[in-house]
Amino acid sequence: MKHGWVVPAPEVAAHIRATAERMQDTLDELLAEIGQQLAPDTPDAPIDPVMAEEIAASNRDTVGRWVRANRLRPGRPVPADLTAQILDVARDMVRRGVDERYLVQGYWRGHNLLWRYWMRAALAEPGSPEVLAASLDLAARSMSRFVDRTLAGVQKHVEHERDQLVGGVPARRLETVNLLLQGAPIAEERASARLGYDLRGRHLALVLWHAPGMMEQGELESAADVIAEAAGARRPLTVAAGISVLWAWIAVPGNVDTEVLNEALAATGTNAHAAAGIPGDGPTGFRLSHQQALTAQRLMFRMHQPPRLTAYEDVQVVAMAAHDEDQAREFVASTLGELADAPPELARTLRVYLQEDCNASRAARRLYTHRNTVLNRIARADALLPRPRPGRGLQVGLALELQHWLGPRR
After folding, report:
1. Which segments of 215-365 are extended strands (E)?
2. How do 273-276 and 280-281 pair as beta strands?
3. CA nearest 131: which of 17, 297, 270, 247?
4. What angle do CA 237, 241, 244 make, to 5 degrees?
5. Which of 72, 79, 366, 385 has the most crowded Cβ, counting Cβ within 10 A?
6. What pLDDT shows up at residue 216?
């Protein structure tokens, strides 16, 4: 015994090692279940798709470390390893104003799920009742100790980040933005002064992001500047919402051609992606445009190859229709029939053709193909529909948009 820890007997150690090896087969299932419980999108925990991916990677890192340690040194204490990935997630939560209780509850919910899967794997391994009891006892103590010490380190880091944020200009800006997004009763003049940004005008909100580790935060700032310039606006208001996410607002005189913004972003040559809301007036427009940008971002994350920039106005109908994803997918299947599973160029061509008011020449220009090719594909697509398209253009068009933006079921 060392520091109160019992070294397991050989047969107990062998049982723990075998359980850890068996856990490898269900690790993905476990992590998916943890992800479903730990990544809500509520006012108390505003988790966007980028943060959800960061949390998933952190979960994989944490759970995988404990399971691997018990395969290599079964039944021994597993030291907390506060990797940069784990600490970055904690820092992002502080910046988003996520309640610390969510973080604490998340770790212990993850612990409970891990223990449930571990018990199932342990019970499937052969061994005497005495060996099983000793194996589970050691695993339970090791797991609780590991989570407790990891969480203690994370909470200490959270306190440090809060201390760093308090008092500075970025902290006041972030606090003010969060108040506006929550619809808090803050005076427009006071909020404008704290932000250094006039809230009385018309605002276009953007959410910019990149895959973790692909870019520096400053590059997202530069991309936001480029988009603002393309919109004919001054430098935008920006807030770092995480290590890989930037929120931005641009003061615009009216509506904006988002295709111009898309081209400007693409011309930067970076890996940045962006989602844009619809321009809105005053503090309410500031908030609503941001919410719309977040909705567009969530749809982009469903796509295999999303565009560089997506505007909410282009996906607004899809966003409303896809509120219940299961029903939306049923609608796609029943409306498109065999076309849903046909070669993708058929659905893509029909989608563009309908967007261009059934003008084959304009559709051909957008698709960079010949008009006759478009007409041929339309005929093939129509033949695969379960019911004739004439008189049902709205339903077919909506189904094609849903299929395009929802992508394959994950």
Report:
1. 237-240, 245-251, 273-276, 280-281, 309-311
2. unpaired
3. 17
4. 110
5. 385
6. 65
2.30.30, 3.30.70, 1.20.1070, 3.40.1000: which CATH number matches 199-315? 3.30.70
The string of pLDDT tens digits covering residues 40-82 is 545 455 667 787 788 888 888 899 999 999 999 998 888 887 8
Domain residue ranges in the chain: 10-165, 199-315, 322-406
**Beta carbons of 274 and 247 less than 8 angstroms apart:** no
Class (C level, CATH) for 10-165: mainly alpha
C-alpha angle with apex 308: 306 to 314, nearest 5 degrees? 75
Strand partners, 42: 45
SS3 content of the chain, % helix, strand, coil (to 5): 65, 10, 25
* Strand ranges (E), 214-347: 237-240, 245-251, 273-276, 280-281, 309-311
User: 247 CB contacts (<8 Å, ≥6 apart)?
Assistant: 177, 205, 206, 207, 208, 238, 239, 241, 290
DSSP-derived letter for residue 7 is: P
Torsion, Cα 152 158 160 163, to 10 degrees, reads: -140
Cα→Cα distances 222→52, 243, 257, 287, 310, Å? 25, 15, 20, 23, 18
Cβ burial, residue 139 (10 Å; 0-12/13-18/19+)? buried
Instruction: Find, among 208, 197, 191, 199, the residue nearest to 293 by Cα.
Output: 208
Which tokens hold the place of 283? 């503090």
The 10 Å CB-count burial string (b at 16+, else e) for 149-159 is bbbebbeebbe
Residue by residue, pLDDT tens for the chain (410 residues) are 444 577 889 999 999 999 999 998 899 999 888 887 765 545 455 667 787 788 888 888 899 999 999 999 998 888 887 887 788 888 777 777 677 777 788 888 889 999 999 999 999 999 899 999 999 999 999 999 999 888 888 888 877 777 666 656 677 788 889 889 888 888 888 899 889 899 999 999 999 998 766 666 678 888 999 999 999 888 899 988 877 889 999 999 888 888 899 999 988 888 899 999 999 999 999 999 999 999 999 888 887 778 899 999 888 888 877 777 788 888 999 999 999 999 999 999 999 999 999 999 999 999 999 999 999 999 999 999 999 998 888 889 999 998 888 877 65
